[in-house]
Amino acid sequence: MKDTDIYLLANQLGYDPSDINPLKLEASGRIYYRLHLQNDESVILCYLDPLHGDQTSFVHTSEYLAKSGISCPRVLKHDGNIGVTIQQDIGDVSLIDIDIEKDNRGLLLDETVKLLSKLHLAQIPQLPTLTLDDLSTQMRMMEEMFLNNFLDISLSSQLNDIEQQALENLSQQPWMNCHFDFERRNLHAINNDICVIDFQDLCHGPIGIDLAGIFIDHYKTYPKEIILKQLKKYNEFTKLGVHALDTFEWLRWGGIQRGMRILGTLSKLYLETKRSFRLKDLSQILDNLINLIPEENHTCKTLLIEKASPVLRKRMSEL
Questions:
Q1: Domain final residue pick, 88, 111, 143
Q2: pLDDT digits over 108-161, tens only?
Q3: Structural domain harbouring 18
Q4: Among 88, 114, 130, which residue terminates a domain?
Q5: Structure pTM?
Q6: Burial 14-51 (b: 16+ CB within 10 A, else e)
Q7: Cross-strand pairs, 24
Q8: For the domain that residue 52 is a member of, what is the CATH number?
Q9: Segment 298-319, tens digit of pLDDT
């Protein structure tokens, strides 16, 4: 969009910015801009084409997260007809910019796990509930969009086995509030607090998906002993009464579902819109998925290592 379009949208909600800076374009189609106002104040304008979705669920969820003591951007104005929310500006420092194992300002990893447990337990009415069909459809995108269309290879029978195992395991683990993209990119450090963003897809779903989001990171690998230590704390916060190794298995299958879904989603985004801003993450996401697949699924692991990984490296070098 042109700056003149953003000025017009801001004016319709009562804002007259002196300057505008584009921030980011999300896979969801949301576009973010920083509006600079008087007295060095600023707010964030988020635009989503009303023909492609609305931000009502984001506004609804933000109210209940705040009531539950969970830091998130306040929604200052919302107009669904023009597809705009005006949000509190929480700055640009996400946890992806901080080594949260070594950060000397505090135990950010502990705080992140505490935040996730609060989000999982928060009372938020009218949330949609994922179904096993939803989870299955999302995983199948890996075969169709990533393997078949992006890499031009097929591993359908092996992936079908993993998908069925994932669905069985996901159905048996606890289902709570699920952010659905709980990763460091969507957690900001502000005023010695952690603020969660991009929660428009919050739903009722298996807890392993969010646990995988923070610990099976697209950009950083955590040693298993650190993960187990934090999962023990998560179990204490949520009073689940299980061993950390049990929770790791929930994380494993949540991570497998998440990895398959994201490989498919990012490939689809590139193939249909040529938006390549997340393609660089595909290799790490595939490596994470391979590492999560249990050793008893030896054939699938081997084929992904020997067939999909080399083709992906070659494909990336050609872009």
A1: 88
A2: 889 999 999 999 999 999 999 999 999 999 999 999 999 999 999 988 778 999
A3: 3-88
A4: 88
A5: 0.94
A6: ebebeeeeeeeebeebbbbbbbeeeeeeebbbbbbeee
A7: 32
A8: 3.30.200.20
A9: 899 999 999 999 999 999 999 8
